[in-house]
Amino acid sequence: MTAVSGQRPTAADPAVAGQGADEDLRALFGQSTAVFASLAGPTHLVEAANPAFFAAIGEERARTGVALQELMPELAGQGFIALLDQVYRTGEPYTGRDVRVVLGAGPHARETYFDFTYEPRRDADGTVTGIRVIGVETTQVKHAQWLMTEHRALLEQIARQAPLTEVLDGMARCIENLAPQEVLVSVLLADSDGGHLRHGAAPSLPDFYNQAIDGIATGEGVGSCGTAAHRREPVIVTDIATDPFWTDFRDLAERAGLAACWSTPILARDGSLLGTFAMYHRTPRVPQDTDLALARIFTGTAALAIERHHIEQAKAAADARARAAHDELAKVVRAERELRAEAEQRAATAAELAARMRAAAAAQAATPRPERCQLGGSAGCTAPAEIKLADSWGDSAWGCPAHAEEAIINVRSVFIANEELGGLVAYLNR
């Protein structure tokens, strides 16, 4: 049976069914966050696309009636046009999961991730006439996964007491990689009285810039960071070229190629200032929700790292003081032992000399003045006896200058007792 000329096609007609399916898809994805585009012919002409598709590729490219490669030339170098050619040629659909897509080119290039499907469109005869692109952007999910991974790694670094500079530098690089648009991160550390900010980490800022702001004061109107530290609240400067906070630093920022700076104070649990966390941009910018979320997360992480560092510093200082005190006590104990040993030795020497004097006094009763020294002890002394010594108990003895000096030094009650000055002269000229 043939259709009557002029008769309207019915829904049972395959061509009509195909058109109806396309219309249903357009209706379904019209206001959806999922991207949808209908491509026609071997050049993949963009027939229709929903707002989410144009939002993903850039509103400035929101037009139809052009080949996809002309609309998005960056896709060719990433293999996506070749995939479309394959689906168009074979009629086999293609599905990608978490596929990396770089949208745009040059400084405006943006890394994104998508789950997508290329489905062939067919006419009534089953011939492929085009391709439907259906996808969901997974960039935020991907970034969230990276964020969790990097954040966990930072927490592990803090837990194993990695150097603070290493933790802060890694954190800055992590944020710079995660931020949806180019960002340059800086962490400044407050000094002990909170009056100045010192360089902590800023891997992507020029060295001359880091050196210039190292040690800036905290205070109202001192750039974004000095003001944020002073106010204890975030300070958002969207255009450095016109903001009064940057009057004194405007030329420096221009030389460094910086146009915006959002700074957040890093506070300890007791509210004291630990430092500031800043995100710089090369063009004037207003922060997005993702930017603020990154700032909140990593400001808290920085606070944890800095507080842990302060605790370790205080502990190290206390340990050093304890070691110094222990060493000093040990030194005092050693000195006391040495003094005690010396005193004991002096006492023994004095007792021995006193005994010699008593023995000499007994001998002197028979011989008033001996020829040889009487103070040489058991070993004896052959030196002439020149000096008479006596003690407070009345004992006396004659000795040579050397042994007489030993007795005078070690026996406190001993004195020179020569009746004439010769003994004193001998002692003085010893």
Our count of helices gives 12
The CATH architecture of the largest domain can be named as 2-Layer Sandwich
* Shape, per Cα inertia axes: rod-shaped
The biggest beta sheet, please? 6 strands, antiparallel
Helix content: 40-55%
Describe this structure as you would to a colleague.
This protein has 430 residues and is of the alpha+beta class. It folds into three domains: 14-137, Beta-Lactamase (2-Layer Sandwich); 142-316, 2-Layer Sandwich (Beta-Lactamase), CATH 3.30.450; 335-428, no CATH class. Helices cover 44% and strands 21% of the residues. It has twelve helices and 14 strands. The strands form three sheets. The chain has a six-stranded antiparallel sheet. It has a five-stranded antiparallel sheet with strand order 2-1-5-4-3, with helices on both faces. A hairpin with a 6-residue loop joins strand 3 and strand 4. Helix 5 packs antiparallel against helix 6 (164-178), helix 5 (139-159) runs parallel beside helix 10 and helix 6 runs antiparallel to helix 10 (289-364). It is rod-shaped and about 150 Å long. The protein starts with 13 loop residues before the first helix and ends with a helix.
Question: Could you outline the blueprint of secondary structure elements for this entry?
Answer:
Layout: H1 14-29, E1 35-40, E2 45-49, H2 51-57, H3 68-71, H4 80-90, E3 94-103, E4 110-122, E5 128-137, H5 139-159, H6 164-178, E6 184-190, E7 196-201, H7 207-213, E8 216-217, H8 223-231, E9 235-237, H9 250-256, E10 260-267, E11 273-281, H10 289-364, E12 387-390, E13 396-399, H11 401-410, E14 415-416, H12 422-428
Antiparallel strand pairs: 1-2, 1-5, 3-4, 4-5, 6-7, 6-11, 7-8, 9-10, 10-11, 12-13, 12-14
